[in-house]
Design a protein that fits this description.
Elements (H helix, E strand, L loop, with lengths): L5 E7 L5 E7 L12 H26 L1 H7 L7 H9 L5 H4 L3 H4 L1 H17 L7 H29 L5 H12 L1 H10 L9 H6 L8 H7 L4 H9 L9 H9 L1 H31 L5 H15 L1 H13 L1 H19 L6 H26 L6 H30 L2 H12 L2 H8 L8 H4 L13
Antiparallel strand pairs: 1-2
Helix pairs in contact: 1-6, 1-7, 1-8, 1-9, 3-7, 3-19, 6-7, 7-19, 8-16, 8-18, 9-15, 14-19, 14-20, 14-21, 15-18, 16-17, 16-18, 17-18, 17-20, 17-21, 18-19, 19-20
Amino acid sequence: MADSQQSVVVSTESDGASEARERISLGFFGRTPPFTRRQWRVFLIACTAGFFDNYDRALLSLALKQIQKGLDIAEDRLGAMLSFIRFGYILTFLLTPLADVFGRRRLLLYTIFGYTIFTGISALAPSERSFVIFQILARAFAGAEATVALVILVEEVDADVRGWTVGLLGALTACGYGAAAGVFALINVMPYGWRGLYALALIPLVLIIPLRRALPESHRFEDTTHDDEEHSSNPLRPVVALFKAYPGRLALLMSVSFLGSMGGNAAGMFFPKYLQEVHHYSPSNVSLLYLIGGGIGILGNIIAGRLSDRIGRRTMGSACYLLAPLLTVWIYNTSGTFVIAAWVIELFFDTASSTIVTAYSAELFPTSHRSTAGSALSVAGTTGGAIGLLLEGVLYSYFHSHWTSVSMLTVFWAMAPFVMYFGFPETAGQELENISPEKMPSVVDPAH
């Protein structure tokens, strides 16, 4: 992905030591922020883990029609099945807090192993029930992996490029969707069809051994545990701290995630099916659109990340959150080539808003329970997405149209930008310790 263009700059740290920083051109994705060698290691590992996670997520949507046929799933059960699978992300709340107790590095390795195994054995599922069980477990580990990888990266990079880094991470890991789209084009010739595509997800297992040596522990986590060794082994400590320290921030963040997922999850999940059944796209046509149009759309991650560092997270995030649902309604109520333009633009703003709320999830809470906060966000998004899919099934029973049902759900999505704009504090350019101090009076909840 990276080309040969790179530059090296020297940065003087606060302790007086100089450290070389390197920027590399990623071609289509632009140049990276100036990273130290340690930051580069963390960034590349986070990208690799997220790539395969997104491959798995994309497969369920892309191959939904084929999975439905292979497992003999009734049309009116699709929404419920997808909803149950989404609930797997709620289990991340049992796993992710352990990163605040035993370390980010150890848990990241375990979660990569877990989601790889359960995604791979989904290829062997003999029935709808077993497929759902395997996918629920895969989602639990995948959700924890994504949260911990983000936390490690946010804790390592500099404050003035934090949004840019999170956006670039989102864009590069989204290439996992592109990889899934590429292999989906071969689904009719792939041995065992959709099952063969899931078997390919076992590839990350070969990464576990080198990652054990290359991945460093977050320096902020090490500093925090040294300061609080008395309570560091208590697995409930980060959960209790999460709900006590900043309850206002937590409620606002979870509300945005819940509303956005409730209105938007069904729209993304049903889009490949919509293209094939309404616009008569073949699997290869769907793949081509995801590869080319999706490549343009995911630039929203990078642009939003960089702009949010300059003009603010709140303004950028709210604008993108407002435009995405409006464009989704256009997608499901247009014809011809307009659907392509509508989807590419919607994807741009959808990925942009996702970048902003992802950055917020890591910035608004202290190191001692930052990973736990990320899992709380995942729980809110999962619950909202699952309820949205269940509502889609209910609406389908009345309107007998998935596309009308999806359009109606966007009303919940459109509420999210107002919560963000009027409730969230501004965090761009600030050090994490200034945004969310570890120790503060229990009666104060600075949501602003």
